[in-house]
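Input C-alpha cells:
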C-alpha cells in the first residue's frame, strides 16, 4: 500500500502540545547525555513519565502478572479482564528508548486500544537499560509471545503493537519468530516505531523537520544504553535488513514532523518491495507517539480509528481465505 498522508494543518491542540513537548521533553533530553549514565537514565525516565501520562487517559481495570514463562521470568499486566485461553488479544510493547516508561505509563493508550478492538491486552514489563542491555528486552518480548501461545492463544489471534522502542521490539519479534520457525502474529502496529537503531535515517531527516520531541544525538545516546555500539548487524536490531514476504501485515503510523517518520517510510517501502504488506500513515505537524494524548488530539483519535480499520481489514482478508490456505 502507498503511504497515507492526511493533508490538513495540525489542530490547535496539536500545535500547543508540540510547543509543550519542546520545553518539557526536548530540553531535558539535551542535558541527559552530559550526565553520568545512571543520572542521565533517571532524568530520562522522569521526563518520559511526565510526557506519557499527561493525556488524562481513561484506564480499564488491570491485573499485574509475575509468572515463569517458557523462557524465564515474565512480568507485565492484563489490561481489561484477563481472557480465557483462545480469545483474541493484544500484545503491547511500550517505548521509550529502552530506558523509560512502564506498562503503567501506557495504560491509558492500551485501554483505549482494548476498548476499540474489543479484546484484552497483555502489556509487557520488559527489562530496561542501563541495568539490562541487549538482548534482555528482546528476550523478554519473545518470552511474552511464547507465554501467550502456551496459554492457548493462537498466533492468528494475537495482534502485536508497540510505540517507539516498543515498535522496534515488535518488528524484532517477527524476525525472532522467523528464525525459530514459529507462526507470525495476525498483524503488527507500530506508533512512531524505531526502525534504524543506528539513527542514520533520522539524522538525514532531522534538518528537514522541527521535531518537538527529540534530537537525534541525544536519542542515540539514550538507546545505546541498551544496544551498545557493536550489535547493529544483529537482525533483531537491523529489522530493516530482515524484511520479507513472510512477515505479517504491518501498519506504521508517525508524525510527519518527527525524525522517525523517515524510519516508517523506509521500512514500508522496503517491505512492500519485498512482497510484504505494510501501510504507512503520517500526520502533518504531529510529534513522536502523538497517539498517547488521544483525548486531547483529534489527530490521535483519527489515527486510532485507522488502527481499528486496519485490524478489521486484516481480519476480513483472513476470513475470505480458503481453509486450505
Amino acid at each position: 500500500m502507498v503511504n497515507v498522508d492526511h493533508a490538513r494543518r495540525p489542530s490547535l491542540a496539536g500545535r500547543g502540545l508540540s510547543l509543550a513537548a519542546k520545553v518539557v521533553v526536548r530540553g531535558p533530553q539535551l542535558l541527559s547525555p552530559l550526565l553520568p549514565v545512571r543520572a542521565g537514565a533517571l532524568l530520562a525516565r522522569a521526563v518520559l513519565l511526565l510526557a506519557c501520562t499527561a493525556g488524562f487517559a481513561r484506564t480499564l481495570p488491570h491485573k499485574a502478572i509475575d509468572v515463569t514463562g517458557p523462557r524465564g521470568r515474565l512480568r507485565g499486566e492484563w489490561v481489561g479482564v484477563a481472557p480465557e485461553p483462545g480469545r483474541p488479544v493484544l500484545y503491547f510493547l511500550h517505548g521509550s528508548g529502552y530506558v523509560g516508561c512502564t506498562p503503567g505509563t501506557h495504560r491509558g493508550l492500551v485501554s483505549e486500544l482494548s476498548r476499540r478492538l474489543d479484546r484484552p491486552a497483555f502489556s509487557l514489563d520488559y527489562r530496561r537499560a542501563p541495568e539490562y542491555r541487549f538482548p534482555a528486552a528482546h528476550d523478554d518480548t519473545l518470552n511474552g509471545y511464547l507465554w501467550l501461545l502456551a496459554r492457548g492463544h493462537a498466533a492468528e489471534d494475537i495482534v502485536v503493537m508497540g510505540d517507539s522502542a516498543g515498535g522496534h521490539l515488535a518488528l524484532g519479534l517477527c524476525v525472532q519468530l522467523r528464525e525459530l520457525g514459529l507462526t507470525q502474529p495476525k498483524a503488527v502496529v507500530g506508533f512512531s516505531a524505531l526502525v534504524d537503531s543506528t539513527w542514520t535515517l533520522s539524522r538525514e531527516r532531522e534538518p528537514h523537520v522541527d521535531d518537538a520531541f527529540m534530537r537525534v544525538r541525544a536519542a542515540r545516546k539514550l538507546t545505546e544504553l541498551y544496544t551498545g555500539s557493536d550489535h547493529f548487524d544483529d537482525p533483531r536490531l537491523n529489522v530493516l535488513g530482515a524484511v520479507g514476504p513472510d512477515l505479517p501485515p504491518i501498519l506504521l503510523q508517525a508524525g510527519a514532523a518527527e525524525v522517525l517518520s523517515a524510519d516508517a517510510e523506509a521500512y514500508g517501502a522496503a517491505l512492500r518491495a519485498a512482497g510484504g504488506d505494510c501501510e504507512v500513515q503520517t500526520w502533518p505537524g504531529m510529534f513522536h507517539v502523538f497517539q498517547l494524548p488521544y483525548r486531547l488530539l483529534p489527530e490521535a483519535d483519527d489515527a486510532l480509528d485507522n488502527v481499528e480499520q486496519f485490524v478489521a481489514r486484516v481480519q476480513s482478508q483472513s476470513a475470505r481465505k480458503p481453509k486450505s490456505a
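Strands lie at 4-5, 62-69, 72-79, 89-93, 121-124, 158-163, 187-191, 250-255, 278-283. The chain has a mean pLDDT of 91.
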